[in-house]
């Protein structure tokens, strides 16, 4: 017998949205399967890769670890809501201009996580930036171009990744969540 669905009302990328889904579904599954927002990437489903990060009430959340029904009444931002119509968010433009995306699998989560940091702190330190992004793994870029791109739209500047490249910004043991 099919499982009864739960009905949730949330705001997704600024739009009030009613969605019905099986109660066991994660937010990641609801976004991708029920709302067709496939920009949120499906990685490990274990809370380790960070590829599934979205913003819930402005904070980065691993959507593979949150039940969809926990988002009733919440404001969810996915990568589809980051641009302003045809105008890219400055972080998106910087990632494109500075080669901060290669395969692109980590990019939606990386962009949203960086946006959450800069929305709350327009002048982060390199350590704050490094810690903010430490939960999203990138297998392609080596992180330097990502730090440079984020740095280019805040006070850190477009060469801040050099510190990381020389070992000064590499993740530390206490970054592991
Ligand atoms: S899919 Fe890897 S942390 Fe969510
Ligand atoms: S660009 Fe490929 S995982 Fe980051």
Keywords:
binds FE2/S2 (inorganic) cluster; alpha+beta; 2 domains; 5 strands; single chain; Ubiquitin-like (UB roll); disordered C terminus; DNA polymerase, domain 1; 177 residues; five-stranded mixed sheet; 29% helix
General description of the model:
- By secondary structure, the chain is an alpha+beta fold.
- The protein has two domains: 6-81, Roll (Ubiquitin-like (UB roll)); 90-170, DNA polymerase, domain 1 (Orthogonal Bundle).
- 29% of the residues lie in helices and 14% in strands.
- The protein has helices spanning 27-34, 90-97, 107-120, 126-133, 144-152, 161-165, and strands at 6-12, 15-21, 53-56, 59-62, 75-77.
- Strand 1 and strand 2 form a beta hairpin.
- The N and C termini lie far apart (39 Å).
- The relative contact order is 0.13.
- One FE2/S2 (inorganic) cluster binds next to loops.
| CATH class annotation of the largest domain | Mainly Alpha
Mean pLDDT: 93
Structural class determined from secondary elements: alpha+beta
Report the span from N to C terminus.
39 Å
CATH structural fold name of the largest domain = DNA polymerase, domain 1
Q: Which sequence of strands runs across the widest sheet?
A: 2-1-5-3-4
Biggest sheet architecture:
5 strands, mixed
Radius of gyration: 17 Å
CATH architecture of the largest domain: Orthogonal Bundle
The helix tally amounts to 6
